[in-house]
């Protein structure tokens, strides 16, 4: 068992937490099985786990910091020639707002993302954004405020068009500092557009909101869904209405807010034409 694992286990037991309780306390940033691996020494603590501890259990992080620093000295550095080798994090998303704009077609033509992040270490100066429906080349993405795009690359292992964009900030952040930026992207045309928009986060987020603006055809019915893992609820209006109720369109706009959404779990809005 590593020193970090021993100390983490002692803190957990001192609070009377099971590993599942600690995973819940960290809002699902890591799985219970991952905590078990870290405590046993089979796995080193990841930046994601450390960011969650600093955010949710800062007093634990203060105790664990020396042990965590020693584990990171043995972590291999990523290839220096990759523009995405340094993700410049970790971050916690304080607020994430997503606006999808529909005009002539039954698919969104543009997406506006407004993100407010908190740096979890000194020196963070960029954010890597994963954008679905856009390519890594061409004028499909622009910064509205809060930085500039320095690199872009296609995202592999996904059947749909997507890309990574590195957003360089206006300055380096201090630990705990808040920073906001906004990005507009134009979505590639698809012949058969989906009837839902989903959000799925891989870093902790306090609040996420989704807004759909319809300037052309408007769906006959809309509903919010989540949390789901397999997307079944998005295709089942009866189940969604029973859980949340239908959504009303006002002046061509409909929105939904999700407080403390679980990580790696989908939330969103679905509709029928």
Automatic annotation (TrEMBL):
<protein>
    <submittedName>
        <fullName>Helix-turn-helix protein</fullName>
    </submittedName>
</protein>
<dbReference type="InterPro" id="IPR001387">
    <property type="entry name" value="Cro/C1-type_HTH"/>
</dbReference>
<dbReference type="InterPro" id="IPR010982">
    <property type="entry name" value="Lambda_DNA-bd_dom_sf"/>
</dbReference>
<feature type="domain" description="HTH cro/C1-type">
    <location>
        <begin position="8"/>
        <end position="63"/>
    </location>
</feature>
<dbReference type="GO" id="GO:0003677">
    <property type="term" value="F:DNA binding"/>
</dbReference>
<dbReference type="Pfam" id="PF01381">
    <property type="entry name" value="HTH_3"/>
</dbReference>
């Amino acid at each position: 068992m590593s020193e970090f694992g021993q100390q983490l286990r002692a803190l957990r037991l001192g609070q009377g937490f099971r590993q599942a309780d600690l995973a819940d306390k960290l809002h699902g940033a890591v799985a219970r099985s991952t905590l078990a691996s870290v405590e046993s020494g089979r796995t080193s603590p990841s930046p994601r786990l450390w960011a969650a501890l600093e955010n949710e259990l800062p007093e634990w992080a203060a105790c664990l910091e020396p042990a965590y620093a020693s584990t990171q000295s043995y972590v291999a550095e990523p290839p220096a020639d990759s523009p995405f080798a340094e993700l410049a994090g970790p971050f916690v998303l304080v607020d994430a707002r997503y606006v999808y704009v529909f005009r002539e077609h039954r698919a969104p033509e543009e997406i506006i993302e407004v993100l407010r992040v908190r740096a979890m270490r000194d020196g963070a100066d960029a954010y890597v954004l994963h954008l679905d429906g856009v390519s890594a080349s061409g004028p499909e993405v622009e910064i509205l405020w809060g930085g500039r795009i320095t690199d872009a690359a296609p995202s592999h292992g996904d059947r749909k068009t997507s890309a990574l964009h590195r957003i360089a900030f206006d300055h380096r952040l201090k630990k705990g500092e808040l920073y906001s930026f906004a990005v507009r992207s134009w979505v590639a045309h698809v012949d058969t557009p989906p009837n839902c928009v989903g959000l799925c986060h891989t870093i902790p987020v306090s609040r996420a909101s989704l807004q759909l603006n319809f300037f052309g055809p408007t769906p006959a019915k809309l509903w919010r869904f989540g949390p789901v893992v397999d997307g079944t609820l998005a295709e089942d209006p009866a189940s969604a209405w029973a859980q949340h109720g239908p959504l009303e369109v006002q002046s061509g706009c409909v929105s939904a807010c999700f407080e403390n959404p679980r990580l790696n779990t989908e939330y969103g809005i679905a509709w029928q034409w």
